[in-house]
Amino acid sequence: MKTRPRRIRRRIVQGIMFGLFRGAAALNGIVLLVVVSFLVANGWRAINWGFLTQAPAEAMTKGGILPCIVGTLCLSLGAILVAFPIGVASAVYLHEYARPGRTIRVIRLGINNLAGVPSVVFGLFGLAFFVIYLKMGVSILAGALTLGAMTLPVIIGASEEALRAVPQSYREASLALGASRWQTIYRVVLPAALPGILTGAILGISRAAGETAPIMFTAAVFFTPDLPSSIFDEIMALPYHVYVLATAGTEIEKTRHIQYGTALVLIALVLGMNLVAIVYRSRLRRGV
Amino acid sequence: MLDVRRRKEWGIRSLFFCVALASITILALIVIFLFAEGLPIFKHVSVKDFLLGEYWYPTADPPDFGIFPLITASIAVTLISALLSIPLGVMTAIYLAEIATPRVREWVKPIVELLAALPSVVIGFFGMVVVAPVLQESFDLATGLNLFNASVMLAFMSIPTITSISEDAIYSVPVELKEASLALGANHWQTISRVIVPASLSGISTAVILGMSRAIGETMVVLMVAGGATLVPSSLFDPVRPMPASIAAEMAEAPFRGEHYHALFATGVVLFLFTLLFNLIADHYAQKYKQVGAATL
What we know:
The complex is a heterodimer of chains A (288) and B (297). Chain A is mainly α. Helices cover 75% and strands 1% of the residues of chain A. Chain B has a two-stranded antiparallel sheet with strand order 1-2. Mean pLDDT of chain B is 91; it is low at 293-297. The chains are: A mainly alpha (288), B mainly alpha (297). Chains A and B meet through helix 1, helix 3, helix 4, helix 5 and helix 6 of A and helix 1, helix 2, helix 4, helix 5 and helix 6 of B.
């Protein structure tokens, strides 16, 4: 007699709880949708051919954002140029060579902690080490190296996951045929893991493209009229442009449309790259 | 022949080992240079006055370098954002791992990843131009840029971290546990709340700590949205200035290797130590209570 109400009650409790969980998950989607659609709604009018291909004019209130786009591309590609080889090689060592033990524990602890270093601390480090100590000055080089240090854990993580997905039988088959460890890695394991590693690289570029704090003291400036001609030039960058125009300008309201437009270009770039990586990865997993 | 090959193998292996040391070398360089540029401030102020001093007036004459308001602001935004991000993040993870059908999962997971990918400056911008005016009007405040606004924005930056790590932890609960619970007559919710969540609690704790670490170190959001007043917060709607905001906002104007410059680096040291502590605790949890059994992902 007692069991029936109890069973009903627990079904109701489950219904309520699952509803809450669904709501929590849905909230993520709602927030993403609200932020993106807000920027699209306010930013699309600012975007036209001139906006993408001209330099800012009349104290930032007119003109385009070409130097920022070029700057962000330079910085994020530079970062990946640094982080990709080091990151992939680190992952190869960790996953293919290292045996469990204290060394590997220490290296992993280092990577985990590097991943947790706040972005502004990377900025301070870049300023003290690359800009001042190595005398690079505020430059693309210093910014790209700082961003590269920051992206390194992302690349290592993605590469390790890709290496883990390569079946052990591939390695065994190669070794059984008489190939050395390195030949196995170079000819068998890496080609099999390459798509996954590249997905990680795309995510790394997008991460570097969106960061502001690490480049504030190392690479980005408020305004330079010219496009960079060498890696020792200081440059403008999309995220820094949004920040400066939205907070520090004297005419915040007058440049509002440019802020929206710049933010829209930035998220289009970053989310676009992420979407490419996500779609590519899900195809890989399905084995298409 | 064999010997040459073996030597070559050894060489390649050593090369990879050296490259693998890069991360830890960078971490060491970060520590060295932060301390080298930060410690000189303690020639002017004592450690105690620096950490517990209530006044941060770095450009006054004589200047005051007390970062207590900055530390409390950082802790306040982190804790308040955690109140939001922990339940939402863990619930999303449970939904993804246990409740959602594979088809729905395939859609929701990328959404969480895209949320994680949103540049922090964009979230800060959104907080400034959308959330702040709404807050200001509905609560009749002097400014919508405050502790509460920053905490909410930060929460949505740490939710993806908490979700993805918790989800992995929930996945790695051996399926036998779940089956045993269901076989004993528990329904799905009872199984989740009494078996699956307790079994994955260590992983969820790691996720929560890493999420909070992300929140305390996040810069652009607190720089743009927190309001910037160097006060020890006394209400939820006070404007505040957490450590990262102070560093990012003032470094450009601090005279090179002056007291202010060193003080900002020392603030960076404190911030770094906070996140290091969080990460070491998370690592400790992850190692000590490592789950054994049918781990996937």
